[in-house]
């Protein structure tokens, strides 16, 4: 496999090559940062060597709120809401955990009995430049869920930061085209570059293993717990949960949503799709009288358990993938300091 | 009928509204093009500007150009639905779900157990089976409501019972003076399965508490869990297994249900 290297000072030339209408890069905001539009000005050396972003990237293809249909009006006919053409986007800086999440959402949104055309349009317009993690967060634990701090698939181009340069790997035709468009600023990688890449990866792997030594185990929930979301153990583990839903909003694989209708212009109506959270008490509440038990997860512990059981027990059955990619964003976001790793250690076999 | 945008409703004309009970109405809808569905599959019915709720048509799947939805008034969408008049527009999406496993009813006694408005989706199954009575050994309909005035489709029981191989029994919880029929919850109509448990398949729809006791009773009568099919009540929203909220364990009822074999879910949390 051909590998290339780009010097730090030429990285911008590589990333501004190609014909993209929008480019997004990680930016340091309040620490490890989010993503912002980039036109080539700001430096990338620091953000690309920082831990993964605070924000998950699902919003690029799965908007927090979006109009997905319009209907009504004078003609009394419904016209399909056209899926707006998404501008061609280059998204730079995704990590291996982010790509694992993309793989998960691809499976959810593009599977029978119906594909989500809005998600599909977002994905089709996206070219991904991933980057190896050289400095994991203290909350990162991809190594505990079958991952590692570098990507082996799912990217168009992958960058491994080494000193003063990046080793480049192409993962698709679009990636090779970007590398070719960059011209002379990209050179073939030397054996020394590749040795440094291996070294960087090894160091990141070691850092993760030592940070997570206390949690390393087989996270298969015990039968008794997996089959009993009413077990008091879940109450104890979720005692500090305030049901804010931050963990589900920030999670790169959580994809629950609701549809709601509203008046658009007095004559027609529009249907909005918005992110939801299985932790919220109204999430699965149905219409009906109270005594009909219209909320199958009326108890907090049932909702709390559902989040973990879905990710670790049911997702593998549904999608042949774990629902957790080990990014640790939920650990970081939780105001109650609930650590998914501790919860899973407590409920494992 | 599924458009390329699965969230887009197709507008349809409401052509008739039938008052069934004090709280239940049947809405007859003419879709702009035939809405083909299998008995047990459901549609998302939109009340324009208010929102959607999932309903299984109560009409004959052989009549895809004239759908009936029998709906109890019990929430935000159905409160407004119940005020609609013939000529008003409603939206339709679907059909969704798998439909009743009619193939599994081949050569069996089919026991249909309904409670309250739960007879509505079962009626589409009853109609579907009427077209193929030679495939099944018999059909027993067991239905319960709270009061006599809440007995859904009560004018149909006699014509149904007049058909060969069909038996209908109904019961109410709260008898009023003059009621000469059976009194008790619907499980009291399951005292014996005519000694045919080994060849019986049961399909039940009703409030969750009823499904729970029907299931317990049927298991006690010797029916295996994989021949008890329950219309589980969950909040189905997207209809295509994406939005997540209708799960029982790994099953999204909008995709794998809404009718599901009890053996699949019996060990999962929050079933009843």
Helical segment tally of chain B? 6
Shape of chain B: globular
CATH superfamily of the largest domain in chain B: Nucleotide-binding domain of ferredoxin-NADP reductase (FNR) module
Largest sheet of chain A at a glance?
Answer: 8 strands, mixed
Explain what this protein looks like in three dimensions.
The complex is a heterodimer of chains A (about 350) and B (about 270). Chain A is of the alpha/beta class and about 350 residues long. Chain A has two domains: about 5-60 and about 75-210, no CATH class; about 225-345, no CATH class. Chain A contains twelve helices and eleven strands. Chain A has an eight-stranded mixed β-sheet with strand order 3-2-5-6-7-8-1-9, with helices on both faces. In chain A, strands 4-11-10 form a three-stranded antiparallel β-sheet, with no helix packed on it. Chain A is globular and about 70 Å long. Chain A starts with a strand and ends with a helix. The mean pLDDT of chain A is about 90. Chain B starts with 9 loop residues before the first strand and ends in a 7-residue tail after the last helix. The mean pLDDT of chain B is about 95. In chain B, a hairpin with a 2-residue loop joins β13 and β14 (about 250). Helices cover about 15% and strands about 30% of the residues of chain B. Chain B has a seven-stranded mixed β-sheet, sandwiched between helices. Chain B has a six-stranded antiparallel β-sheet with strand order 4-3-6-1-2-5. Chain B is of the alpha/beta class and about 270 residues long. Chain B folds into two domains: about 10-95, Translation factors (Elongation Factor Tu (Ef-tu), domain 3), CATH 2.40.30.10; about 100-230, Rossmann fold (3-Layer(aba) Sandwich), CATH 3.40.50.80. The chains are: A alpha/beta (about 350), B alpha/beta (about 270). Chains A and B meet through β4, β10, β11 and α10 of A and β4, α1, β6 and β13 of B.
């Amino acid at each position: 496999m051909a590998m290339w290297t780009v010097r730090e000072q030429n990285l911008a030339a590589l990333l501004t090559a190609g014909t993209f209408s929008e480019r997004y890069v990680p930016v340091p905001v309040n620490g490890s940062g989010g993503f912002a539009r980039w036109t080539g000005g700001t430096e990338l050396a620091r953000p690309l060597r920082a831990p993964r972003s605070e924000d998950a990237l699902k919003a690029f293809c799965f908007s927090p709120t979006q109009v997905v249909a319009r209907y009504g009006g004078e003609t009394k006919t419904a016209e399909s809401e056209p899926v707006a053409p998404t501008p061609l986007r280059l998204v730079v800086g995704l990590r291996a955990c982010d790509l694992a999440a993309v793989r998960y959402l691809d499976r959810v949104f593009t599977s029978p009995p119906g594909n989500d055309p809005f998600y599909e349009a977002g994905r089709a317009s996206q070219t991904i430049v991933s980057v190896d993690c050289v400095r994991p967060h203290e909350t990162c634990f991809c190594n505990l869920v079958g991952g590692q701090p570098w990507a082996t698939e799912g990217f168009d181009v992958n960058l491994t930061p080494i000193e003063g340069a990046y080793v480049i790997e192409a993962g698709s035709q679009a990636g090779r085209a970007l590398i070719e468009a960059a011209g002379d600023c990209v050179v073939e990688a030397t054996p020394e570059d590749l040795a440094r890449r291996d070294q960087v990866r090894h160091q990141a792997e070691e850092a993760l293993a030592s940070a997570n030594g206390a949690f390393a185990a087989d996270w298969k929930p015990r039968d008794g717990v997996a089959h009993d979301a009413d077990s008091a153990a879940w109450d104890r583990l979720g005692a500090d949960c305030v049901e804010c839903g931050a963990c589900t909003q920030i999670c790169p694989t959580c994809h629950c949503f609701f549809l709601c209708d509203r008046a658009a212009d007095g004559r027609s109506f529009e249907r909005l799709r918005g992110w939801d959270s299985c932790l919220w008490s109204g999430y699965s509440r149905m219409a009906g009288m109270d005594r009909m038990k219209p909320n199958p997860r009326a108890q907090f512990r049932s909702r709390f358990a559902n989040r973990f059981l879905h990710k670790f027990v049911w997702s593998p059955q549904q999608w042949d993938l774990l629902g957790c990619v080990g990014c640790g964003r939920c650990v970081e976001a939780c105001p109650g300091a609930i650590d998914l790793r501790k919860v899973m250690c407590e409920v494992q076999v | 009928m599924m458009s390329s945008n699965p969230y887009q409703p197709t507008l349809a004309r409401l052509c008739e509204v039938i008052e069934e009970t004090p709280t239940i109405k049947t809405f007859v809808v003419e879709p702009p093009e035939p809405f083909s569905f299998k008995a047990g599959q459901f549609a998302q019915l939109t009340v324009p500007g208010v929102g959607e709720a999932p309903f299984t048509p109560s009409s004959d799947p052989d009549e895809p150009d004239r759908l009936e939805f029998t709906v109890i008034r019990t929430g935000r969408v159905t409160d407004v639905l119940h005020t609609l008049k013939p000529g008003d527009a409603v939206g339709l999406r679907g059909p969704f779900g798998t439909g009743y496993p009619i193939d599994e009813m081949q050569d069996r006694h089919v026991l249909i157990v309904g409670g309250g408005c739960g007879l509505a989706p079962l009626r589409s199954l009853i109609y579907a089976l009427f077209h193929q009575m030679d495939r099944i050994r018999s059909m027993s309909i067991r239905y319960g409501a709270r009061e006599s005035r809440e007995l859904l489709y009560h004018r149909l029981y006699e014509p149904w019972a007049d058909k060969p191989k069909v038996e209908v029994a109904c019961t109410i919880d709260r008898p009023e003076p003059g009621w000469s029929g059976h009194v008790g919850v619907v499980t009291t109509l399951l005292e014996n399965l005519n000694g045919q448990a080994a060849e019986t398949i049961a399909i039940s729809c009703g409030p969750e508490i009823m499904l729970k006791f029907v299931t317990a009773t049927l298991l006690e009568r010797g029916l295996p869990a994989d021949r008890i099919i329950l219309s589980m009540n969950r909040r189905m929203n997207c209809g295509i297994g994406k939005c997540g909220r209708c799960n029982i364990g790994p099953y999204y009822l909008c995709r794998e249900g809404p009718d599901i074999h009890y053996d699949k879910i019996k060990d999962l949390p929050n079933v009843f």
